[in-house]
Design a protein that fits this description.
Strand content: 25-35%
Number of helices: 14
Shape: elongated
Number of strands: 31
Radius of gyration: 27 Å
CATH superfamily of the largest domain: Glycosidases
Largest sheet: 8 strands, parallel, barrel
Helix content: 10-25%
Distance between the termini: 86 Å
Length: 601
Protein backbone atom coordinates (compact mmCIF):
# COMPACT_ATOMS: atom_id res chain seq x y z
CA UNK A 1 0.00 0.00 0.00
CA UNK A 2 1.11 3.54 -0.75
CA UNK A 3 2.62 5.58 2.10
CA UNK A 4 1.82 9.25 2.71
CA UNK A 5 3.54 11.89 4.78
CA UNK A 6 1.27 13.25 7.49
CA UNK A 7 1.34 15.75 10.32
CA UNK A 8 -1.04 17.37 12.79
CA UNK A 9 -3.73 19.25 10.90
CA UNK A 10 -5.90 22.34 11.26
CA UNK A 11 -8.75 21.83 13.75
CA UNK A 12 -10.88 24.85 12.88
CA UNK A 13 -12.97 23.44 10.03
CA UNK A 14 -14.44 19.93 10.18
CA UNK A 15 -14.38 17.82 7.04
CA UNK A 16 -11.99 18.00 4.10
CA UNK A 17 -10.15 21.15 3.03
CA UNK A 18 -8.06 21.07 -0.14
CA UNK A 19 -4.90 23.12 0.42
CA UNK A 20 -2.18 24.04 -2.07
CA UNK A 21 0.33 21.46 -0.82
CA UNK A 22 -1.83 19.05 1.16
CA UNK A 23 -5.29 17.84 2.12
CA UNK A 24 -6.53 18.66 5.60
CA UNK A 25 -9.15 16.46 7.20
CA UNK A 26 -10.71 17.15 10.60
CA UNK A 27 -13.12 14.67 12.18
CA UNK A 28 -15.06 14.55 15.43
CA UNK A 29 -13.96 11.51 17.49
CA UNK A 30 -15.68 11.16 20.85
CA UNK A 31 -13.81 7.93 21.62
CA UNK A 32 -10.15 7.49 22.56
CA UNK A 33 -9.63 4.87 19.86
CA UNK A 34 -7.17 5.67 17.05
CA UNK A 35 -8.77 7.11 13.92
CA UNK A 36 -7.77 5.75 10.50
CA UNK A 37 -8.38 7.22 7.05
CA UNK A 38 -9.09 4.47 4.50
CA UNK A 39 -8.34 5.37 0.89
CA UNK A 40 -10.00 3.74 -2.13
CA UNK A 41 -9.70 4.05 -5.87
CA UNK A 42 -12.38 6.52 -6.90
CA UNK A 43 -13.61 4.41 -9.83
CA UNK A 44 -13.15 0.78 -8.78
CA UNK A 45 -13.51 1.46 -5.02
CA UNK A 46 -10.66 -0.97 -4.31
CA UNK A 47 -8.84 -0.25 -1.07
CA UNK A 48 -5.47 1.41 -1.75
CA UNK A 49 -4.12 2.63 1.58
CA UNK A 50 -4.76 3.06 5.32
CA UNK A 51 -3.52 6.31 6.84
CA UNK A 52 -3.40 6.58 10.64
CA UNK A 53 -4.01 9.96 12.23
CA UNK A 54 -0.83 11.02 14.09
CA UNK A 55 -0.80 10.79 17.87
CA UNK A 56 -0.55 14.59 18.05
CA UNK A 57 -3.67 15.07 15.91
CA UNK A 58 -6.21 15.34 18.75
CA UNK A 59 -7.61 18.51 20.29
CA UNK A 60 -10.65 17.95 22.46
CA UNK A 61 -12.92 15.59 20.51
CA UNK A 62 -11.49 16.56 17.13
CA UNK A 63 -8.78 14.72 15.24
CA UNK A 64 -7.11 16.69 12.43
CA UNK A 65 -4.46 15.57 9.95
CA UNK A 66 -2.63 17.04 6.97
CA UNK A 67 -1.79 14.56 4.18
CA UNK A 68 0.84 15.36 1.58
CA UNK A 69 1.18 14.10 -2.00
CA UNK A 70 -2.46 12.99 -2.11
CA UNK A 71 -4.24 13.56 -5.42
CA UNK A 72 -7.84 14.33 -4.35
CA UNK A 73 -9.15 13.51 -7.83
CA UNK A 74 -7.93 9.90 -7.58
CA UNK A 75 -9.32 8.78 -4.25
CA UNK A 76 -12.51 8.11 -2.35
CA UNK A 77 -12.35 7.70 1.40
CA UNK A 78 -13.94 6.33 4.55
CA UNK A 79 -13.03 6.62 8.21
CA UNK A 80 -12.41 3.74 10.60
CA UNK A 81 -12.61 3.37 14.34
CA UNK A 82 -11.63 -0.19 15.21
CA UNK A 83 -13.72 -2.39 12.91
CA UNK A 84 -16.36 0.28 12.29
CA UNK A 85 -16.05 2.07 8.94
CA UNK A 86 -18.19 5.13 8.28
CA UNK A 87 -18.47 8.08 5.93
CA UNK A 88 -17.32 11.47 7.12
CA UNK A 89 -20.47 13.40 8.21
CA UNK A 90 -18.97 16.47 6.52
CA UNK A 91 -18.37 14.75 3.17
CA UNK A 92 -19.63 17.11 0.48
CA UNK A 93 -20.03 14.45 -2.18
CA UNK A 94 -20.35 10.68 -2.10
CA UNK A 95 -19.83 7.74 -4.43
CA UNK A 96 -20.89 4.09 -4.41
CA UNK A 97 -24.63 4.58 -4.01
CA UNK A 98 -25.55 5.44 -7.58
CA UNK A 99 -28.64 3.20 -7.57
CA UNK A 100 -31.55 4.16 -5.35
CA UNK A 101 -31.81 1.50 -2.64
CA UNK A 102 -28.20 0.31 -2.74
CA UNK A 103 -25.82 1.91 -0.27
CA UNK A 104 -22.11 1.36 0.12
CA UNK A 105 -21.00 4.92 0.48
CA UNK A 106 -17.61 6.54 0.25
CA UNK A 107 -16.71 10.21 0.57
CA UNK A 108 -15.02 12.19 -2.16
CA UNK A 109 -12.29 14.73 -1.49
CA UNK A 110 -12.91 17.25 -4.22
CA UNK A 111 -16.13 18.95 -5.17
CA UNK A 112 -16.98 20.37 -8.56
CA UNK A 113 -16.07 23.72 -10.07
CA UNK A 114 -19.22 25.51 -11.18
CA UNK A 115 -20.09 29.13 -11.95
CA UNK A 116 -23.70 30.20 -11.43
CA UNK A 117 -25.15 32.39 -14.16
CA UNK A 118 -28.36 33.54 -12.53
CA UNK A 119 -29.18 35.35 -9.30
CA UNK A 120 -31.50 34.13 -6.57
CA UNK A 121 -35.05 35.39 -7.25
CA UNK A 122 -35.48 36.84 -3.71
CA UNK A 123 -39.27 36.73 -4.06
CA UNK A 124 -41.14 38.46 -1.19
CA UNK A 125 -43.33 36.22 0.97
CA UNK A 126 -46.56 37.79 -0.25
CA UNK A 127 -45.63 37.08 -3.88
CA UNK A 128 -44.49 33.50 -3.31
CA UNK A 129 -46.30 30.39 -4.50
CA UNK A 130 -44.66 27.24 -3.15
CA UNK A 131 -44.81 23.86 -4.92
CA UNK A 132 -43.91 20.81 -2.83
CA UNK A 133 -42.42 17.82 -4.65
CA UNK A 134 -40.28 14.70 -4.31
CA UNK A 135 -37.47 14.79 -6.89
CA UNK A 136 -37.65 11.07 -7.62
CA UNK A 137 -41.45 10.70 -7.65
CA UNK A 138 -41.98 13.89 -9.67
CA UNK A 139 -40.52 12.54 -12.92
CA UNK A 140 -39.88 8.81 -12.37
CA UNK A 141 -43.03 7.66 -14.19
CA UNK A 142 -42.58 7.23 -17.95
CA UNK A 143 -45.50 9.61 -18.48
CA UNK A 144 -43.17 12.46 -17.42
CA UNK A 145 -41.43 12.08 -20.81
CA UNK A 146 -38.05 13.34 -19.65
CA UNK A 147 -34.47 12.23 -20.00
CA UNK A 148 -32.97 10.58 -16.90
CA UNK A 149 -36.28 10.28 -14.98
CA UNK A 150 -36.22 10.70 -11.23
CA UNK A 151 -33.16 12.97 -11.18
CA UNK A 152 -32.19 16.60 -10.69
CA UNK A 153 -31.81 16.88 -14.45
CA UNK A 154 -35.36 15.67 -15.01
CA UNK A 155 -36.67 18.24 -12.55
CA UNK A 156 -34.92 21.02 -14.47
CA UNK A 157 -36.68 19.81 -17.64
CA UNK A 158 -39.99 20.68 -15.95
CA UNK A 159 -38.94 24.27 -15.24
CA UNK A 160 -41.00 25.72 -18.09
CA UNK A 161 -44.07 23.81 -16.89
CA UNK A 162 -43.64 25.20 -13.38
CA UNK A 163 -43.16 28.72 -14.71
CA UNK A 164 -46.26 28.48 -16.88
CA UNK A 165 -48.29 27.30 -13.91
CA UNK A 166 -47.14 30.30 -11.91
CA UNK A 167 -44.85 28.66 -9.35
CA UNK A 168 -42.27 30.94 -7.72
CA UNK A 169 -40.42 28.38 -5.51
CA UNK A 170 -40.17 24.61 -5.41
CA UNK A 171 -39.87 22.85 -2.05
CA UNK A 172 -37.89 19.63 -2.34
CA UNK A 173 -38.29 16.68 -0.02
CA UNK A 174 -34.79 15.68 1.18
CA UNK A 175 -32.17 15.72 -1.59
CA UNK A 176 -29.14 15.40 0.65
CA UNK A 177 -27.76 11.84 0.67
CA UNK A 178 -30.23 10.26 3.09
CA UNK A 179 -30.26 6.55 3.83
CA UNK A 180 -33.29 5.19 1.98
CA UNK A 181 -32.78 1.58 3.08
CA UNK A 182 -34.73 0.44 6.12
CA UNK A 183 -36.02 -2.72 7.77
CA UNK A 184 -39.72 -3.21 8.44
CA UNK A 185 -40.29 -3.53 12.18
CA UNK A 186 -43.07 -6.09 11.75
CA UNK A 187 -41.83 -8.46 9.02
CA UNK A 188 -38.09 -7.75 9.06
CA UNK A 189 -38.36 -7.14 5.31
CA UNK A 190 -35.98 -4.70 3.61
CA UNK A 191 -37.85 -1.65 2.37
CA UNK A 192 -37.17 1.73 0.79
CA UNK A 193 -37.88 5.15 2.28
CA UNK A 194 -38.88 7.36 -0.64
CA UNK A 195 -39.47 10.48 1.42
CA UNK A 196 -36.01 10.68 2.97
CA UNK A 197 -36.72 11.68 6.57
CA UNK A 198 -33.83 9.60 7.86
CA UNK A 199 -30.16 9.68 8.80
CA UNK A 200 -27.86 10.78 6.01
CA UNK A 201 -24.89 12.77 4.84
CA UNK A 202 -26.32 16.23 5.22
CA UNK A 203 -23.63 18.06 3.22
CA UNK A 204 -23.79 15.83 0.11
CA UNK A 205 -26.45 15.96 -2.64
CA UNK A 206 -28.05 12.58 -3.27
CA UNK A 207 -26.05 10.62 -5.79
CA UNK A 208 -28.93 8.41 -6.95
CA UNK A 209 -30.78 11.60 -7.94
CA UNK A 210 -28.03 12.30 -10.47
CA UNK A 211 -26.46 10.78 -13.55
CA UNK A 212 -23.08 10.50 -11.84
CA UNK A 213 -22.13 14.03 -10.80
CA UNK A 214 -24.61 15.04 -8.09
CA UNK A 215 -22.86 18.26 -7.05
CA UNK A 216 -22.69 19.69 -10.56
CA UNK A 217 -26.15 18.43 -11.53
CA UNK A 218 -27.86 19.92 -8.49
CA UNK A 219 -26.13 23.24 -9.10
CA UNK A 220 -27.22 23.13 -12.74
CA UNK A 221 -30.79 22.45 -11.64
CA UNK A 222 -30.78 25.33 -9.14
CA UNK A 223 -29.34 27.64 -11.80
CA UNK A 224 -31.90 26.49 -14.38
CA UNK A 225 -34.77 27.13 -11.98
CA UNK A 226 -33.29 30.50 -11.07
CA UNK A 227 -33.20 31.37 -14.77
CA UNK A 228 -37.01 31.02 -14.65
CA UNK A 229 -37.08 33.08 -11.42
CA UNK A 230 -38.06 29.98 -9.46
CA UNK A 231 -36.48 29.58 -6.03
CA UNK A 232 -35.33 26.33 -4.42
CA UNK A 233 -36.19 25.42 -0.83
CA UNK A 234 -34.83 22.21 0.71
CA UNK A 235 -36.34 20.08 3.44
CA UNK A 236 -33.98 18.83 6.15
CA UNK A 237 -34.76 16.29 8.85
CA UNK A 238 -32.26 16.34 11.72
CA UNK A 239 -32.38 13.44 14.23
CA UNK A 240 -32.20 14.20 17.98
CA UNK A 241 -28.47 13.55 18.35
CA UNK A 242 -27.40 16.24 15.84
CA UNK A 243 -25.58 19.24 17.31
CA UNK A 244 -27.23 22.63 16.85
CA UNK A 245 -23.96 24.05 15.50
CA UNK A 246 -23.90 21.25 12.90
CA UNK A 247 -27.37 22.27 11.71
CA UNK A 248 -26.34 25.89 11.27
CA UNK A 249 -23.12 24.88 9.48
CA UNK A 250 -25.12 22.64 7.16
CA UNK A 251 -27.60 25.34 6.17
CA UNK A 252 -24.79 27.84 5.64
CA UNK A 253 -23.00 25.35 3.39
CA UNK A 254 -26.00 24.81 1.09
CA UNK A 255 -26.73 28.53 0.90
CA UNK A 256 -23.12 29.39 0.06
CA UNK A 257 -22.31 26.50 -2.27
CA UNK A 258 -25.64 25.69 -3.92
CA UNK A 259 -27.37 29.08 -3.75
CA UNK A 260 -30.57 27.62 -2.32
CA UNK A 261 -33.27 30.09 -1.35
CA UNK A 262 -34.57 28.54 1.83
CA UNK A 263 -34.94 25.54 4.10
CA UNK A 264 -37.80 23.63 5.69
CA UNK A 265 -36.47 22.38 9.02
CA UNK A 266 -37.70 19.24 10.77
CA UNK A 267 -36.37 17.52 13.83
CA UNK A 268 -35.39 18.31 17.37
CA UNK A 269 -33.49 21.14 19.09
CA UNK A 270 -33.52 23.31 15.98
CA UNK A 271 -31.44 26.48 16.53
CA UNK A 272 -34.10 28.78 15.10
CA UNK A 273 -33.00 31.86 16.99
CA UNK A 274 -29.43 31.48 15.74
CA UNK A 275 -30.55 30.82 12.18
CA UNK A 276 -33.02 33.71 12.13
CA UNK A 277 -30.40 36.14 13.42
CA UNK A 278 -27.45 34.82 11.37
CA UNK A 279 -26.44 37.70 9.03
CA UNK A 280 -25.52 35.25 6.27
CA UNK A 281 -28.95 33.59 6.42
CA UNK A 282 -31.05 36.74 6.67
CA UNK A 283 -32.00 36.55 3.01
CA UNK A 284 -33.30 32.97 2.99
CA UNK A 285 -36.71 31.63 3.96
CA UNK A 286 -36.86 29.29 6.96
CA UNK A 287 -40.00 27.13 7.18
CA UNK A 288 -40.92 25.47 10.49
CA UNK A 289 -44.02 23.89 11.99
CA UNK A 290 -44.07 26.07 15.07
CA UNK A 291 -42.15 29.01 16.49
CA UNK A 292 -42.40 31.59 19.25
CA UNK A 293 -41.76 34.76 17.26
CA UNK A 294 -41.40 36.88 20.42
CA UNK A 295 -38.66 34.57 21.68
CA UNK A 296 -36.74 35.06 18.43
CA UNK A 297 -37.34 38.73 17.66
CA UNK A 298 -38.36 40.13 21.03
CA UNK A 299 -40.83 43.01 20.85
CA UNK A 300 -39.34 44.39 17.65
CA UNK A 301 -40.79 43.64 14.23
CA UNK A 302 -38.00 42.35 11.93
CA UNK A 303 -37.04 44.50 8.95
CA UNK A 304 -37.89 41.54 6.76
CA UNK A 305 -39.54 38.26 7.62
CA UNK A 306 -37.34 35.22 7.25
CA UNK A 307 -39.37 32.62 9.16
CA UNK A 308 -42.55 31.07 7.81
CA UNK A 309 -44.89 28.98 9.96
CA UNK A 310 -46.36 25.90 8.28
CA UNK A 311 -50.07 26.23 8.99
CA UNK A 312 -51.59 22.80 9.66
CA UNK A 313 -54.64 24.46 11.23
CA UNK A 314 -55.41 26.14 7.88
CA UNK A 315 -55.28 22.71 6.24
CA UNK A 316 -57.56 20.94 8.70
CA UNK A 317 -60.07 23.76 9.17
CA UNK A 318 -60.30 24.32 5.41
CA UNK A 319 -60.96 20.62 4.88
CA UNK A 320 -63.71 20.64 7.50
CA UNK A 321 -65.33 23.70 5.98
CA UNK A 322 -64.99 22.24 2.48
CA UNK A 323 -67.05 19.19 3.37
CA UNK A 324 -69.63 21.26 5.22
CA UNK A 325 -68.88 20.57 8.88
CA UNK A 326 -70.76 22.56 11.47
CA UNK A 327 -69.31 25.57 13.30
CA UNK A 328 -66.40 26.23 10.90
CA UNK A 329 -67.17 29.77 9.67
CA UNK A 330 -65.32 31.52 12.49
CA UNK A 331 -62.10 29.53 12.11
CA UNK A 332 -62.10 29.56 8.31
CA UNK A 333 -62.88 33.28 8.04
CA UNK A 334 -59.94 34.07 10.33
CA UNK A 335 -57.60 31.84 8.32
CA UNK A 336 -58.23 33.54 4.99
CA UNK A 337 -57.21 36.93 6.40
CA UNK A 338 -54.41 35.67 8.65
CA UNK A 339 -51.15 37.51 7.95
CA UNK A 340 -48.85 37.66 11.02
CA UNK A 341 -46.65 40.68 11.59
CA UNK A 342 -43.35 39.02 12.58
CA UNK A 343 -43.48 35.71 10.70
CA UNK A 344 -45.04 34.63 7.45
CA UNK A 345 -47.76 31.99 7.38
CA UNK A 346 -47.64 29.15 4.84
CA UNK A 347 -51.08 27.82 3.92
CA UNK A 348 -51.98 24.54 2.23
CA UNK A 349 -54.89 22.14 1.78
CA UNK A 350 -52.60 19.14 1.21
CA UNK A 351 -49.08 18.33 2.33
CA UNK A 352 -46.70 15.41 1.76
CA UNK A 353 -48.48 13.61 4.62
CA UNK A 354 -52.12 12.76 4.07
CA UNK A 355 -54.30 12.53 0.98
CA UNK A 356 -53.67 14.22 -2.32
CA UNK A 357 -56.38 16.75 -3.19
CA UNK A 358 -58.05 14.33 -5.58
CA UNK A 359 -58.07 11.61 -2.91
CA UNK A 360 -59.38 14.11 -0.34
CA UNK A 361 -62.66 14.33 -2.29
CA UNK A 362 -62.64 10.64 -3.32
CA UNK A 363 -61.97 8.69 -0.11
CA UNK A 364 -63.37 8.85 3.40
CA UNK A 365 -60.90 6.30 4.77
CA UNK A 366 -57.21 5.73 4.25
CA UNK A 367 -56.21 2.72 2.12
CA UNK A 368 -52.63 1.99 3.16
CA UNK A 369 -52.71 -1.79 2.87
CA UNK A 370 -49.81 -1.79 0.39
CA UNK A 371 -47.56 -0.32 3.08
CA UNK A 372 -47.54 -3.70 4.85
CA UNK A 373 -48.59 -2.33 8.23
CA UNK A 374 -52.17 -3.65 8.28
CA UNK A 375 -53.46 -0.17 7.42
CA UNK A 376 -52.41 0.98 10.90
CA UNK A 377 -49.97 3.64 9.66
CA UNK A 378 -50.87 7.14 8.55
CA UNK A 379 -53.38 9.48 10.12
CA UNK A 380 -56.95 8.36 10.75
CA UNK A 381 -58.08 12.00 10.77
CA UNK A 382 -58.19 13.14 7.16
CA UNK A 383 -61.34 15.29 7.32
CA UNK A 384 -62.19 14.08 3.84
CA UNK A 385 -65.45 13.38 2.04
CA UNK A 386 -65.81 11.05 -0.94
CA UNK A 387 -68.77 12.94 -2.51
CA UNK A 388 -70.94 9.82 -2.54
CA UNK A 389 -68.66 6.97 -3.65
CA UNK A 390 -65.49 5.52 -2.15
CA UNK A 391 -62.60 5.68 -4.60
CA UNK A 392 -62.79 5.95 -8.36
CA UNK A 393 -66.25 6.50 -9.81
CA UNK A 394 -67.84 6.85 -13.24
CA UNK A 395 -70.99 8.47 -11.92
CA UNK A 396 -71.32 11.87 -13.56
CA UNK A 397 -72.89 13.53 -10.52
CA UNK A 398 -70.05 12.31 -8.28
CA UNK A 399 -67.35 13.46 -10.72
CA UNK A 400 -68.99 16.88 -11.17
CA UNK A 401 -69.25 17.41 -7.42
CA UNK A 402 -65.65 16.31 -6.85
CA UNK A 403 -64.36 18.71 -9.48
CA UNK A 404 -66.35 21.55 -7.96
CA UNK A 405 -64.97 20.71 -4.51
CA UNK A 406 -61.44 20.70 -5.91
CA UNK A 407 -61.98 24.14 -7.42
CA UNK A 408 -63.37 25.29 -4.05
CA UNK A 409 -60.25 24.02 -2.30
CA UNK A 410 -57.93 25.85 -4.68
CA UNK A 411 -60.01 29.00 -4.29
CA UNK A 412 -59.79 28.76 -0.49
CA UNK A 413 -56.02 28.51 -0.76
CA UNK A 414 -55.23 31.00 -3.49
CA UNK A 415 -57.59 33.77 -2.37
CA UNK A 416 -56.26 33.70 1.21
CA UNK A 417 -53.63 36.00 2.68
CA UNK A 418 -50.31 34.36 3.50
CA UNK A 419 -48.13 32.23 1.26
CA UNK A 420 -49.89 29.32 -0.50
CA UNK A 421 -48.26 25.94 -1.02
CA UNK A 422 -49.44 23.42 -3.63
CA UNK A 423 -48.64 19.74 -3.58
CA UNK A 424 -47.20 18.51 -6.87
CA UNK A 425 -49.79 16.95 -9.14
CA UNK A 426 -52.84 18.29 -7.31
CA UNK A 427 -53.37 20.75 -10.14
CA UNK A 428 -54.18 17.88 -12.50
CA UNK A 429 -55.78 15.44 -10.02
CA UNK A 430 -52.89 13.14 -9.21
CA UNK A 431 -54.03 10.22 -7.03
CA UNK A 432 -52.34 7.80 -4.62
CA UNK A 433 -55.36 5.47 -4.65
CA UNK A 434 -56.32 6.47 -1.14
CA UNK A 435 -52.89 5.88 0.42
CA UNK A 436 -52.29 8.73 2.85
CA UNK A 437 -48.79 7.68 3.94
CA UNK A 438 -46.85 6.24 0.96
CA UNK A 439 -43.41 6.89 2.44
CA UNK A 440 -42.29 3.39 1.43
CA UNK A 441 -43.94 3.24 -2.01
CA UNK A 442 -41.17 3.70 -4.57
CA UNK A 443 -43.61 2.88 -7.37
CA UNK A 444 -46.64 4.17 -9.25
CA UNK A 445 -48.55 4.84 -6.03
CA UNK A 446 -46.16 7.72 -5.32
CA UNK A 447 -45.02 8.61 -8.83
CA UNK A 448 -46.76 11.55 -10.50
CA UNK A 449 -48.81 10.39 -13.49
CA UNK A 450 -48.34 13.15 -16.06
CA UNK A 451 -50.98 11.63 -18.35
CA UNK A 452 -53.50 13.09 -15.90
CA UNK A 453 -52.48 16.55 -17.09
CA UNK A 454 -54.20 15.99 -20.42
CA UNK A 455 -57.13 14.08 -18.88
CA UNK A 456 -57.87 16.88 -16.43
CA UNK A 457 -56.74 19.92 -18.38
CA UNK A 458 -59.88 21.82 -17.35
CA UNK A 459 -58.85 21.67 -13.69
CA UNK A 460 -55.25 22.49 -14.57
CA UNK A 461 -56.33 25.51 -16.61
CA UNK A 462 -58.58 26.70 -13.77
CA UNK A 463 -55.69 26.50 -11.31
CA UNK A 464 -53.36 28.31 -13.70
CA UNK A 465 -55.92 31.10 -14.20
CA UNK A 466 -56.56 31.36 -10.47
CA UNK A 467 -52.83 31.66 -9.75
CA UNK A 468 -52.51 34.38 -12.39
CA UNK A 469 -55.54 36.14 -10.89
CA UNK A 470 -53.92 36.11 -7.44
CA UNK A 471 -50.68 37.52 -8.85
CA UNK A 472 -52.55 40.29 -10.65
CA UNK A 473 -54.44 41.44 -7.55
CA UNK A 474 -52.50 42.29 -4.39
CA UNK A 475 -55.71 42.57 -2.32
CA UNK A 476 -55.48 38.78 -2.04
CA UNK A 477 -51.78 38.75 -1.07
CA UNK A 478 -51.18 41.86 1.01
CA UNK A 479 -47.73 42.53 2.41
CA UNK A 480 -49.30 43.66 5.69
CA UNK A 481 -52.20 42.42 7.77
CA UNK A 482 -55.70 43.65 6.89
CA UNK A 483 -56.91 46.11 9.53
CA UNK A 484 -60.64 45.63 8.82
CA UNK A 485 -60.91 49.43 9.13
CA UNK A 486 -61.39 52.45 6.89
CA UNK A 487 -58.02 53.95 7.76
CA UNK A 488 -57.68 55.99 4.53
CA UNK A 489 -61.19 57.52 4.80
CA UNK A 490 -62.44 56.13 1.50
CA UNK A 491 -65.79 55.00 2.89
CA UNK A 492 -64.91 51.30 3.07
CA UNK A 493 -62.61 49.16 5.25
CA UNK A 494 -59.75 47.37 3.51
CA UNK A 495 -61.53 44.05 4.12
CA UNK A 496 -64.91 43.20 5.65
CA UNK A 497 -67.12 40.18 6.38
CA UNK A 498 -70.71 39.85 5.15
CA UNK A 499 -73.62 37.45 5.32
CA UNK A 500 -76.49 37.04 2.88
CA UNK A 501 -77.20 40.68 3.71
CA UNK A 502 -74.48 43.32 3.39
CA UNK A 503 -72.55 44.18 6.55
CA UNK A 504 -74.38 41.44 8.47
CA UNK A 505 -72.05 38.47 8.80
CA UNK A 506 -73.64 35.61 10.71
CA UNK A 507 -71.12 33.09 12.03
CA UNK A 508 -73.67 30.95 13.86
CA UNK A 509 -72.60 27.34 14.27
CA UNK A 510 -75.28 26.11 11.83
CA UNK A 511 -74.27 28.50 9.02
CA UNK A 512 -71.93 27.47 6.23
CA UNK A 513 -71.93 30.58 4.04
CA UNK A 514 -70.44 34.08 4.27
CA UNK A 515 -68.64 36.63 2.10
CA UNK A 516 -65.58 38.89 2.18
CA UNK A 517 -65.23 42.25 0.43
CA UNK A 518 -61.80 43.66 -0.50
CA UNK A 519 -61.23 47.30 -1.46
CA UNK A 520 -58.46 47.92 -3.97
CA UNK A 521 -57.63 51.50 -2.91
CA UNK A 522 -55.57 50.03 -0.08
CA UNK A 523 -53.26 48.09 -2.42
CA UNK A 524 -50.81 49.45 -4.96
CA UNK A 525 -50.36 47.62 -8.26
CA UNK A 526 -47.04 47.10 -10.04
CA UNK A 527 -48.04 49.76 -12.59
CA UNK A 528 -48.49 52.33 -9.83
CA UNK A 529 -52.29 52.28 -9.93
CA UNK A 530 -54.67 50.88 -7.33
CA UNK A 531 -56.19 47.44 -7.29
CA UNK A 532 -59.82 46.59 -8.06
CA UNK A 533 -62.59 45.89 -5.56
CA UNK A 534 -63.79 42.31 -5.06
CA UNK A 535 -66.51 40.42 -3.25
CA UNK A 536 -66.01 36.70 -2.61
CA UNK A 537 -69.02 34.62 -1.52
CA UNK A 538 -68.38 31.20 0.02
CA UNK A 539 -71.21 28.67 0.32
CA UNK A 540 -70.27 25.19 1.55
CA UNK A 541 -73.90 24.47 2.47
CA UNK A 542 -75.74 21.73 0.56
CA UNK A 543 -78.40 24.36 -0.21
CA UNK A 544 -78.29 27.38 -2.52
CA UNK A 545 -78.15 30.88 -1.00
CA UNK A 546 -78.68 34.40 -2.35
CA UNK A 547 -76.24 37.12 -1.33
CA UNK A 548 -76.81 40.88 -1.41
CA UNK A 549 -73.37 42.56 -1.63
CA UNK A 550 -72.75 46.07 -0.29
CA UNK A 551 -73.25 48.89 -2.72
CA UNK A 552 -70.03 49.14 -4.74
CA UNK A 553 -67.94 52.33 -4.86
CA UNK A 554 -69.28 55.22 -6.93
CA UNK A 555 -69.78 54.66 -10.67
CA UNK A 556 -69.18 50.93 -10.32
CA UNK A 557 -71.32 47.81 -10.59
CA UNK A 558 -70.68 44.30 -9.34
CA UNK A 559 -70.06 41.71 -12.03
CA UNK A 560 -69.55 38.00 -11.61
CA UNK A 561 -66.13 36.96 -12.95
CA UNK A 562 -65.75 33.44 -11.55
CA UNK A 563 -67.58 30.62 -9.84
CA UNK A 564 -66.23 27.24 -8.82
CA UNK A 565 -69.09 25.38 -10.49
CA UNK A 566 -68.43 27.10 -13.85
CA UNK A 567 -64.88 28.50 -13.76
CA UNK A 568 -63.80 31.95 -14.95
CA UNK A 569 -66.38 33.83 -17.00
CA UNK A 570 -65.35 34.80 -20.52
CA UNK A 571 -67.75 37.74 -20.24
CA UNK A 572 -68.37 39.12 -16.71
CA UNK A 573 -72.04 39.01 -15.73
CA UNK A 574 -73.75 41.97 -14.00
CA UNK A 575 -75.90 41.22 -10.95
CA UNK A 576 -79.65 41.09 -11.30
CA UNK A 577 -81.50 43.29 -8.80
CA UNK A 578 -78.40 43.68 -6.67
CA UNK A 579 -78.17 40.06 -5.61
CA UNK A 580 -76.13 37.04 -6.59
CA UNK A 581 -77.28 33.42 -6.32
CA UNK A 582 -74.56 31.14 -5.00
CA UNK A 583 -75.29 27.48 -5.60
CA UNK A 584 -74.62 24.78 -3.04
CA UNK A 585 -70.97 23.93 -2.34
CA UNK A 586 -69.57 26.70 -4.51
CA UNK A 587 -67.65 29.97 -4.37
CA UNK A 588 -68.39 33.08 -6.43
CA UNK A 589 -66.10 36.05 -7.10
CA UNK A 590 -67.50 39.48 -8.03
CA UNK A 591 -65.53 42.45 -9.32
CA UNK A 592 -66.58 46.10 -9.13
CA UNK A 593 -66.43 47.40 -12.71
CA UNK A 594 -66.66 51.06 -13.70
CA UNK A 595 -69.89 51.82 -15.55
CA UNK A 596 -68.38 54.44 -17.89
CA UNK A 597 -65.59 52.12 -18.99
CA UNK A 598 -68.20 49.48 -19.65
CA UNK A 599 -70.19 51.79 -21.93
CA UNK A 600 -67.15 52.93 -23.91
CA UNK A 601 -66.11 49.33 -24.51
Amino acid sequence: MKKFRTEKGNFEKLGVTICEACVNIAVENKTLRPLVLELFDKKSLHRLASVHFPASSRLGDVCAMKIYDLDPEQYAYRLRLGNNEFVDPYAVETVGNEKFGRRKMYGLFKTDDFSFKYKNPETPWNEELFYLLNVRAFTKDKSARVNNPGTFSALSQKASYLKNLGITSVILQPVYDFNETMTDGISGEKRLNLWGYAEGNFFAPKQSYSCGHPGIEFKETVDKLHSFKIGVIMQFYFPPDIRESFITECIRYWVLNYRIDGVWLMGYSLPLKNIASDPLLKGIKVLVTDVDADNIYGEAVPDRKNIGILNDSFMYDSRKYLKGDEDMLGAFSRHILNNPEKCATVNYITNYYGFTLNDLVSYERKHNEDNGENNADGSDYNYSWNCGAEGKSRRKAVITLRHSQIRNAFTFLLLSQGTPMLRAGDEFLNSQNGNNNPYCQDNKISYINWDDLEKNKDIHEFVRELIAFRKDHPVFRSAVKKKMMDYISCGYPDASYHGEQAWAANFANYNRHFAVMYIGLYEKMNNGGRDDDFYVAYNMHWMDHRFHPPKPPKNKVWKKIMSTDEGFCKTPKELSEGEIPVSSRSTVVLKAVEVLKDKRS
